[in-house]
């Protein structure tokens, strides 16, 4: 058996590590010169979106021997709509670094690998499929999947983000649901440290949103963030991403070609989280290759979660700022808060129920 993994990101490396545990050495091709060769950003894994696992980091460590050290745990998430503020607290999840940061999750995974990564190899499927019996597509790009099979794009996302300087509590995240600057999307702030944080604005590129001025939306978003957190933040550097495809493949595998991470459809459409899902798909593909699992079956629950999340997104898209205010206010209700933070039930379904009465009349 000769296994090639295209891409040394979260899914590719989780796949390679799992294969090594079963005694298989894959050739890993990475087009960049190093692992995590992109801008530094803080990302998060929220327990409430990973039901039934209340601690994804512990689960990866205890179940799959993949060890990750988050930057911080999250104990409080503030929710701001146009005129309301609420928060949820508890053991909510973790923040972690990505990209060029020395503690980026992809770098932590690469450090656990015994085999070598072949850098600066922007390989094409056509080339490697001749030489290898198994190919794992882990390039993080749905466009690569679309060359082989239908990829149902739920929407293309536009991101604008920055690393900002200020005073932060590392255990607190801030989320903004205000369609004035995040049309049908959201903005969020995740601390890197007590002095730096990532501020990200993300929204779908629907035709009506494409008419809006991205820079103006960003300025409003940044201003709102300064006002709500009562600070004069300084932008250290910023970045912009367009046409980021969020969707899902029709087939998790075709013959001995496995689609993992974003190439499979790991990003949950409602809030754009995909790290845990990416690593799981990499692990599951490795289990199939090693003959201890069936990839199509293993990704079943993740598929379900994708669809639940997509339904929730479609419901949220029917709301407006007034309704977002009502929902934000309702989160201050202890019963609603405890429903959101429970890890016993599927959160996407719970939130759908909470916002259903608001969306019905929208
Ligand atoms: C701005 C932003 C913020 C996000 N925030 C969060 C968050 O807070 N929480 C969360 O859970 N998720 C978040 N996500 C989603 C998460 O980052 C992705 O779901 C996850 O990284 C996907 O993993 P992957 O393995 O598919 O791809 P990646 O981790 O992107 O890895 C792909 C790798 O393949 C390499 N590559 C590409 N093409 C080739 C080729 N032809 N040959 C060889 N190598 C190639 C790339 O260089 C890269 O190293 C965010 C995404 C973005 C864009």
Task: Give an overview in words.
Strand 1, helix 1 and strand 2 (27-29) form a beta-alpha-beta unit. The model has no long low-confidence stretch (mean pLDDT 93). The chain has helices at residues 10-21, 56-64, 105-111, 125-131, 142-146, 207-210, 214-229, 275-289, 295-298, 300-316, 321-331, 334-341, 347-360, and strands at residues 3-6, 27-29, 41-46, 72-80, 85-98, 117-118, 134-137, 151-165, 172-176, 186-191, 196-204, 234-249, 253-254, 257-259. It is of the alpha/beta class. The longest helix is centred in the C-terminal third of the chain and has 17 residues, at 300-316. The strands form two sheets. Strands 3-5-4-9-10-11-8-12 form an eight-stranded mixed β-sheet. A six-stranded mixed β-sheet has the order 6-2-1-7-14-13, sandwiched between helices. The chain has 13 helices and 14 strands. The radius of gyration is 20 Å and the shape is globular. The protein has a single domain (3-360), classed as FAD/NAD(P)-binding domain (3-Layer(bba) Sandwich), CATH 3.50.50.60. Flavin-adenine dinucleotide binds at residues 6-12, 29-32, 41, 43-45, 122-123, 138-141, 159, 161, 200, 241, 244, 261-262, 266-267, 272-275, 278. Residues 6-12, 29-32, 41, 43-45, 122-123, 138-141, 159, 161, 200, 241, 244, 261-262, 266-267, 272-275, 278 line the site of flavin-adenine dinucleotide.
How would you summarize this macromolecular structure in one to three sentences?
The chain is an alpha/beta fold and 362 residues long.
